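ARCHIVE CARD
Drawer: 12
Card no.: 0347
Subject: one protein chain, sequence and derived structure
Cross-reference: see card 0346
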Amino acid sequence: EEMASTYARLTEKRESDLLAEIRKLFSEHQSGSDQLKRVKYEVFDVVIDVLEDDTVSKDTYQQLISKLGVEADGLKKRDAGELVEKIINKIKNMKSVKGRSIELLPLLFSVLETHSKQGISAKKELIETLHLVRWPTMNVCGIVTMLRDLKLTEQELQMFCEKTLLLLRSMRPLELPPIVHQLLALSSTKGSKRLILNGILYLFTALDKEVEEADHATEEEITVAPQRHELLQAEGTVMLHISYAIQNNQELDKELLDIVKSSTGTMPASVISPFCVATLLSLSYTQRLQDQIFVILKTALINTFKNNERRRGSKWLKNVTGESPDVQQYLLTAVTNSNHGWDYVLQGLVKFAFYLLEGFVPKALESPFGDAGSAMQQLSDTGTKLLVSIYEMHRIARKEIVDQVLRKIGASAATYAKHYISILYILVRKPETRDPILECIPRIQEVLNYISFFPVTTAISFLEAVQPLLKYSINLKESLLSTLNEALFSKTVERRSIAVKGYVMLLRSLKMLDEVLLSSQSSQPLSGSQIFVELHGNNRSASNEALCLEILSMLRRCFSQQSEVRTCLYQGLLDVFVDNPKLQVPILELLVNHLKMYCASDLSELPPILYANCLKEGPGGPVQVTEPVDVLLRSVILCYLKYQEDVGEDNECESVRKVFQLLKSLALSMCKLEPADVGLSKDVSTVSNSTVGSKSVAMATLVMKSCDVLMEFVYGVGEFSQQSSDQIVHLHTVRQEVGTMAQDQGTGVAGSKRTAGRVPQSLRPQAAPFQSCLSVQGTASLLKGIYNDTLPVRQPGLGVLRKSLQFCQYLLGTSCQQMNALVETGQCCGMQVTELSKLNKVFCVFGRAYFKQLELLSLPGSQPESSKGKSPGSLCVDGLAVVVQLACNADEEGRRDLLFPIVSSGDVAPDSVSEVSLYLIRKLQRLINGIISDPPEVLGLTIKDAISMATIILNLSHLLDEVEEVAEIIKWSHEVCKETKRDDINFCKGFLGLLFGLCQRYDQNIRMLRKICYNVRALIGDIDEEVEIQPKNNLSVITSRTVTPCCLTLVLHQLDLIVDDVEWFVSRLKVGSPESQPYSLNTTADTDLEGMFDSLCKERLTMIIHCFHELIQTAIAPGSIADHLVKLLIRLYGTFKELTKYVMCMLNTCGGEPDMAYMKMVELTGTHLNPQIYAFISYLQTVQVHAHEPQGGGQGKKGKGKPLAPSNIKKNTHKELVNIPKLIFAIEEYEKFLIKVGKKAKIDLMKTFKRSTARDFKINISTVTAKLAEEMDDESVSILKEGNEEDGEQEGGEQEPMI
């Protein structure tokens, strides 16, 4: 009744009078009386209900809370407990809509604490009850806020935090930021920082993954997922909360960095998740944290790239761990997400992208294919993609990115800045975002002023990057022309080369309406302000023509400069000739007029080219080339052939016809050339030691190069007619004769002390027989004609070329040389590759020729003639290996471009890369079978070529789709190793390596290794000499000669790879354990831990134990191989220990017993490893001691029969057996954890383990004394005895024997 009366008095009052009525109720009773305590309980009970009323304003309820806080001390323990229960029931029954009554809980719990132990016990029970009840979503934030004022133990705090983090997964994204804010505040004041931060990162990373999966799900797979825009809005607010919390508490940033740093080694991909990256980069504005964050993210990227490569190399790892994460896409997703108002992340993204680029230093001469597999190259690519993506999406960051790129290019003047220039190249060619680039033109102009001081490659790349901007700025054009004018007359060759290439770039870009006449050239100096030019524009005015003529006039002066500058000029004018048709006639006239200066007046004279005028001998120095006439002649020929292709023979002008007559006369005269015509004589001794001899060798080199380019001219105009083919063979014959004699004479010159160094290295004929000056396109055309052309009209001429084995050999060798140069540097014979598609077209022609030649060799009755140097078949194998390697490194389109033309013919119509690869593999298998057959069925190929073809098969196997096809190849390679009886180390290494590579790639190597290890033990012998092992299913390639070190080294290498994979897998397994779930960054942890664990124990560790069981019983001599084996055992036992620790973690979490597969593996280590390891250690020690004993008792050669000094024995023994104590320690550590697991599971896991005497390291004094006595000579022993007797006489009594 009193309760009802109090409730009526309070509820009848208006909101403004409620507080006054409460004060009146309290004042009506005496302080400390039981009635007052009862009234307080009644007021609290009523106010709890009143606070949930929507009509109560915020000010009123805050005043009520304050008033009740003052009066709470007077409550009884029982009353306080009942009030707490009432609030908990409201939460449980979802009646606490507003959650205001929850704020009374800290007051009521504090009342309970004041009532001795019973109150504390009641408080614990109520806290546990609060934890167990279901929390409505609307009350979660209020409860977390309340926890900040509640006194909790560390265990209770962790309990509430875990419950809160679990509830967050079921809430809408927009409801999360307030709760996260309260959790962060709770962690700052109470603790559990690591748990809360880890849970927040895990939560939003998992939500991102759900949204991503929902976006890519099909109609059947559609699941309920958060809305992306809501999630991004929530994530942005949460990142602000984290940043604010870290500003107020620096311990939070230490904990956060520690969390992500610990994940970089085990699960690096989780650190690069979009939310985690954005969170870290939002904190990078602080210099104190920036360096640490960038290092952590870079380390995570590198580790992820390495892990992805590891997955690609092992089918077993790929099967058990799933697909590799695309971390580059994660970062690009972070950039996309930052477009939703995450401006505080943007600055960090830009800085991090440049940080990735700073660690990469590209090479000046770099392969166009790049080194895509290296981690540093992938980091550079990631930084480039990040900057381009940021530039496209964020207008506010564009100017800063361009400024930074230009600053980096200017600062890297001494090095090659290709990665920065490539970014500028991309940004300039984006018309929709070009405004920031135009605003930075003054900055670009500053860089242009110093462009001549850059390395040549950097300068030219920069000019090509900014070329489209020239039409937007007159000042930029003037600055460029002024810089090039100044550089053209510089003292250094590099600056002149930059000027020439810069002018060439301008000529290639100028567009004109009419052809330019060379006679209309102006002699006025070139000035950008006098001539206004529009590059790439539609207005083709006379100013373009005037500028072109001015540039050609400037370049004409380069004809008198150094040889390097002239080479750049000739190659550059050829590029202009191809790209700018309106300049073809003046360029051809310019080149031909200069060529005539070095031609004889009568072209019938021999030699028709005045090679002597192209050389210069310095005073006391080497012979130098002043005129690269071979490059000049090649440019003229290629220009003429290009003109004939574009215009046609009937439309040639008179000047071009004269060019044809000139080149035709040169070709005819060179066909009649003799070595004596260039000063070469068979009598090397009479010429080689003279200056004339040095000059003759240099002239011969120019003659050989001239023959190369003239062969291309004859082919180009003759189109494989019989007459042109005869001329080509004659030119090649002249080249071979001159080259052979020059090589002999050059050796004589180099061997003479008087004339050493007179012939520069660049002019000496190389040791390799194929050093050609043919263009890449010319080589491809000749190969295509010889091996693929079937037109009847060309067959007589092609027959002449096909019959010339030396010419075919020369052509194949030239193609291999050119292909290697293009792959390594991207340029060869004046050709510089900018597009991979053009390069692939050339390589597919080469590959087709190689394959066709190999098919001809496989035909019955084909017996090639003997020739010097590599045979055509060997050259084809080498070239085909390069083409296949490039195809394996290319993308799907590149593989099609490279491989399809190789096998395309009337009877073969490939549909996929896998089909082409299988076709090539089967052809190569037939060739290998023919080579290794007895007698050989394929002539012209050697065992070395068969080994190279095995490598090709291994590369092609990576492109196969069907497992059955790979199984057939493995079966074939096993048969080759089993049936081929060759006691050849290289053959064993090649084909056993093929077998191991195929098995390792497709998860069959471990079974194969067990059999091979048994055979190795049978061939080498057991450590116990009385034990004899009979080989089972022995591979014939493994013989007593090849088993060590070849076969044994390959076996240990394979075991090294397997143990390395197992170590990595165990670390990943530990990350996915229940100990790290659910609050870790590992959102991609595998759920089938039991299946992964069984796969590890059954498919890997058990088989590995069997392999080592055989090897440690093998009589391996002490040395590097034995040391490698001991190190592998140390790593293996380290893996056993980590796996046992994982089992201990599982038992602590889930209880029960260890997995049956694990217990079998442990039993196997006790029966098959431990006893044999101790026996192996004893064997190594015994062999080590005997190795230092004297061999025989007689006195032979000097030094033989004498024992080593004790100090040397100790040094050698320590060096070779240093890892044995580490192995013993690793075994003991493993056994220690086994004992712990056994006690936890109440199972004796050590029942198969027996202690060995090898672990007893106690020194046996009698043994040491006897050994020292044997090593001392008689004289030393007598001296020692005399000394002992003297000591005994002095001291008296019995003496102990001296050790």
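Annotation on reverse: Strands lie at 615-617, 623-625, 827-828, 831-832. The longest strand covers residues 615-617.
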